Amino acid sequence: MIEAITVLARISSDDIIASVLNRNGHLTGRGNRWTRERVTALRSHHRIPCYKPDEQPPWINLTDAAAYLDISPRTLRLAIDRGEIPADHPFADGPWVISRDILESETAQTLARRAQVRPRKPAVLLSEKHLNLFSST
Prior knowledge:
Layout: H1 2-8, H2 14-23, H3 36-45, E1 59-61, H4 62-69, H5 73-82, E2 97-99, H6 100-103, H7 106-117
Antiparallel strand pairs: 1-2
Helix pairs in contact: 2-3, 4-5
């Protein structure tokens, strides 16, 4: 639990950490639900630094990392699943945590270039012969 909170504290406030812990069914040592105050107390006791949103942290979540690389979050998630990009995911129902240094690596840049040169197929049929499939009413 301490390691997971350490990872989450890199990108999240104590409120968010408490909600992730509760959503994943984790209780405190006394069987209580997590609150901001309880997370703060645990962090303070174990000297875990708190998240500072004003600074540019060395860690970011999956959505922000994908935006940084200018690729979709799904593309980045698939690369993580393949082992191309290392990331931490302490809870099944919680955020991914990725180092900014990893995003600067040649592997991440290659992934971004590969994703951007692939032809994208539209989700909607553009052919005129298929237009009559849709009702005009």
